[in-house]
Amino acid sequence: MIMNAPLIGQPMDRTDGVLKVTGEARYAAEFPEARLAHAVLVTSTIASGSIASIDASRAQALPGVLLVMTYQNAPRLPNGGRPPATPSVGRHLSLLQDNQIHYSNEPVAVVVADTLEHATDAARQLRIAYQSTPAVLDFTSAKANAHAPITPQGRQTDTQRGDFNAGLADGAVRIEAVYTTPIEHHNPMEPHATMAHWDGPQLTLYDSTQGVSGARVAVATTLGISPDDVRVISPFLGGGFGCKGSSWSHVALCAMASKQTGRPVRLALTRPQMFGPVGARPRTEQHFTLAARHDGTLTAMRHDSFSNTSMFEDWTETCCMVTRMLYAVPNQVTTHRLVQLNLGTPTFMRAPGETTGSFALESAMDELAAALKMDPLALRLKNYAEADPQENKPWSSKSLRQCYQIGAEKFGWSRRTPAPRSMRAGNTLIGMGMATATYPANRSAASAVARILPDGTAMVASGTQDLGTGTYTVMTQVAADALGFAPEKIHFALGDSTLPPAPGSGGSQSAASVAPAVHDASLQVRNQLIALALADSASPLHGMNADEVSVDNGWVVSRSNPSLRDPAGAILARAGGHPIEAVVSVKPGGERSTYSLHSFGAVFVEVHVDADLGTIRVPRMVGVYDAGRILNQKTAHSQMLGGMVWGVGAAFEEDTLLDPRYGRFVNANLAEYHVPVNADIGTLDISFLDEPDPHINSLGVRGIGEIGLTGVVAALANAVYHATGVRVRDLPITLDKVMTPSEV
Amino acid sequence: MDAISYERAGDVSSALRAAQQPGTMFIGGGTNLLDLMKGGVERPLRLVDITHLRGLDTIGTLPDGGLRIGALVRNSDTANHALVRAQYPLLSQALLAGASAQLRNMATVGGNLMQRTRCGYFYDTAFTQCNKRQPGSGCAALEGQNRMHAILGASSQCVAVNPSDMSVALAALDAVVRVNGPRGERTIALAEFHRLPADRPDVDTTLQPGELITAVDLPPPLFSDHSHYLKVRDRASYAFALVSVAAALQLDGTTVKSARIALGGVAHKPWRASAAEQMLTGQPLTDATLREAAAAALRDARPLRDNRFKVQLAQRSIVRAVNQAAGRTGGIA
After folding, report:
1. Distances in whole angstroms, Cα of residue A622 to Cα of each of A267, A438, A675
2. Are B117 and B123 in contact (CB under 8 A)?
């Protein structure tokens, strides 16, 4: 008998693929429920002020209308609906507890009716009069009142190492530049949606969330009920990208509306409602100073980052995190400051801080390389950080040098001629650019259950989520290897807060956190199965030692004589026909105090710019990644594809346009808010070094959800500079910014 | 309550009868109207579905050698029709440059002519100023986010642009719109079909209340050998034009016998660049004459805060499109 090769790493097809393409996969807004009522969220049309009056009489009189919930009749929540702790654990929400307006598109009412059409119609008939007060919406002037956030995302607000001024004096070449990035909105294909169902004191929420456990606690705390009375179910998500990492107002409002009406209530946001009340990537303004010696050695680096937040909650785009760790620069200052505006609170958006920060850092490095007349890749190698320069710790593992080398080779970087506008074919300016990708290798405590059933199959589960990234699939692979079961004999379950808890799917931590728990639980229950067989006199394996057998394809098998074997179903049947199970919790150990854990990559891109019209196209991109051990080559490749495609959008397209007179976004729809279309994307060449990280966890696995977006934006901006000689420091790089302003 | 009544008309006369009731709108593919209704921008009381009108969904030749395209022919069918491709490739290109495959499969020729602007202030009723949506309320775009807006022919009342690609090609091709209404049939030159905003930006076209577009007539093909539709936009597909140019030439060697140039994305209507056409006519096609003509086309441009680039972009686009029509040069866009 031949032992099956490990499944981990194999490009296994998605276990939920058929469910998805046949429409059988059920998303939050698709669960049927008897007596279901439909809610429509009504949002503010002013940015600052208060509600002067609400006339709900017409709306309430319409057929089918069950409830018009406003601040006048909404149930009062503990602590005014505010999160209790300082700094707060949950988000500051808009839960109809008062008449104050903090931003445009803020929830002000919920209308519930027997059908969605009735609710929509009634919502339109609601007459709300506002009393406006002056709103703060101009980033540049509000910057004068910027404040320092307290430990943004648990990190240091400011850092300092060495002597920045001395380093500046030591440098022969200096770059000073300001980079800006616009407000961006996540817009997953599936907008936020929730269905709430009360059964006595117990609340069940079907919610599109990146964290069932977090949502459970957040909603319970907000409503002032026990988390034990809340269950959150989220089996499938149509994307999250960070905006579903928090439980926003509509979730608690849906539960409140359900309680008020005594019926199950579904509340799905419309696409325009995705622009405001559920987070955004904030605007950033990043000031960079770099100094280097003639040989490229960095002597000083300063990065001051400003980003907007709302008027009522601090949330920081941590742009300086990459700056602190990427290069071996001895003298450095980094700062984060927040600019309060009358907008909804920003939030995590794929590689928050790393996307925006690495655009600025890696653009500045490119500017420095140009000033030094040095190859951009050589400049990065010159300042390669052999250890984390901020934490003063060794890397758990780092093969960035190989990424650079392999990427440059695949791309043909040596063919690049250094001077801007030096590569041209007719009307087409050709540019080549590169940048470094990096993202922290996060991990949190996680737990899982593995159960072998009397029918010879296994059920493995963890309260994690699958954002569409492939969690179901990769965890099935991990469980299959550890159990010794075929993947089709394993049912993997997730997305339910009654399952053993796992962290929220954010910060690229799910694979690194959950895979070890799934692995260990599976291994433990496998060992139980073996022990049962060996102790059973009816088993052909009776009396053997545990190390003399293995489990293969669901059979316990003698290693020396594979004809001696016993199927799991028979073993359990003889033992009384009960399932056996193991529940395991795992957590990071001391490795984080010893090592700095990060993933790395190198991105090389080619752009073509129309010399007359400024139109930009991206014929090819190469990405090479050191991202630990890869669980599934196919889903991992897709993750990187998605990240790099997003990079094209972030570089050239994404831009939420704010009208500061209204405090309202002008392009709050997917026709005018641009993300890449197929025609924007050329050839993407993606590869992984696939080297296990020896320190992160027992499997050597790091998460890969976000690194694919980092570096891409700067590489594209650098390529545009190389093509045109125009350095665009303000995203997005649209054609009007690169059209050369000369003759017709 | 805004209950909407819906009826499906079987023939033109019953559709016209139905349209006499106030608050009635015709609905074809619905790709624009339904979005506007969802946003509360259009609030018809009554929808008359015209997609089943007999005889308006065909393309056929006219006695003079021209082509008649029924108002209900889908954009995708028009673009891919053998006669359109062979004789009016400019129209085919323009249609295929618009929207997405899914939208083109639904959208009709008549509906495309009736498309409303994509101005964000028009689309979102939370913006209290929009003369097009609410006459007399003002124009938020005038001093707002106006990168996409008009540089030609706008007024202080409205700076919105017409979003259609098809109409730009039809303007260059001297198409004629056939309509039927309470007072019978009539024709409207495409150049006269869409209006400039002046002080009535709420009125997009010269179509009278109750009138129904039945067809678009194209004159005999003169430009099938030398035409090009150039669309410059912020992404490679499914984006409205920053600037587009429909260029069509009759060439005698290198000399221009006649030229047709229309611009999209720059005005409240497809913008015929007549001065540029005249400057090219009878002249050898050189870079110098082309640039002069392009400059003339934009002489009256009045850009706004965010769209100054459009003036130069439009000029360069004219040069590029005419050159491509003549088979001279190409580029990325």
Report:
1. 42, 15, 20
2. no
Residue showing tokens 């503990």: A78
Measured in degrees and rounded to the nearest 5, phi and psi for residue A173 equal: -125, 140
Residues B291, B181: Cα–Cα separation, whole Å? 44
Give the strand pairing for A107-113 and A65-69.
antiparallel
Q: What are phi and psi of A616, to 5 degrees?
A: -115, 135
Smallest Cα–Cα separation from B57: which of B43, B73, B37?
B73
| pLDDT surpasses 60 at A3 | no
Q: Looking at residue A598, what is its pLDDT?
A: 98
Q: Is the preceding peptide bond at A732 cis, omega within 30 degrees of 0?
A: yes
pLDDT, tens only, A610-662: 999 999 999 999 999 999 999 999 999 999 999 999 999 999 999 999 999 99
Pick from A124, A659, A678: CB nearest B40: A124
Q: How many CB atoms lie within 10 A of CB B298?
A: 24
Q: Is the dihedral of CA B314, B315, B316, B321 positive or negative?
A: positive
* 3-state class percentages of chain A: helix first, strand second, coil last, to nearest 5: 30, 25, 45
Closest C-alpha among A472, A393, A590, A62 to residue A234: A472
Taking the CA of residue A272 and the nearest CA in chain B, the distance in Å comes to 9
Give residue for tokens 């009535």. B200
CB A503 within 8 A of CB A513: yes
Whether the ω angle into residue A84 lies within 30 degrees of 0, i.e. cis, is: no
Per residue in A234-267, pLDDT (tens digit) is: 999 999 999 999 999 999 999 999 999 999 999 9
Cβ pair B331:A428 closer than 8 A: yes
Dist CA B252 CA A105 (whole Å):
60
Mutation target to probe the B interface, by most B beta carbons within 10 A, among A46, A613, A731 is: A613
Amino acid at A690: D
Tokens of A1: 């008998």
Interchain CB contacts (distance < 8 Å): A and B: 120
Report residue A430: phi and psi, to 5°: -105, 135
| A2-11, A704-713, B192-201: segment of lowest average pLDDT | A2-11
Q: How far apart are the C-alpha atoms of A8 and A188, rounded to whole Å?
A: 28
CA–CA separation, B249 and A598 (whole Å):
60
Cβ contact (<8 Å) for B329 and A426?
yes
Alpha helices in chain B (DSSP H): 12-18, 33-38, 75-80, 82-87, 89-96, 101-106, 109-113, 120-123, 166-172, 190-193, 274-280, 287-297, 309-325
| CA atoms of B222 and B204, how far apart (whole Å) | 29
Tokens of A627: 């991202």
What is the interface pTM, i.e. ipTM, of the complex?
0.97
Three-state SS for A393?
Answer: strand
Instruction: Sheet containing B176-181: give its strands across.
Output: B59-61, B67-70, B212-218, B176-181, B184-189
Q: What average pLDDT does range A573-590 have in this prediction? A: 97
Residue A432's Cα: distance from chain center in Å? 28
pLDDT in tens, B206-228: 999 999 999 999 999 999 999 99
Taking the CB of residue B76, how many other CB atoms lie within 10 A of it?
A: 18
Cα→Cα distances B200→A540, A710, B131, B300, Å: 92, 49, 8, 21
Beta carbons of B169 and B90 less than 8 angstroms apart: yes
Contact B127/A678, CB-based, under 8 Å?
no
- Residues in chain A with CB shorter than 8 Å from the CB of B122 are none
Helices (H) then strands (E): counts for chain A: 18, 31
Amino acid identity of residue B319, one-letter, is V
Contact A427 B329 (CB under 8 A): yes
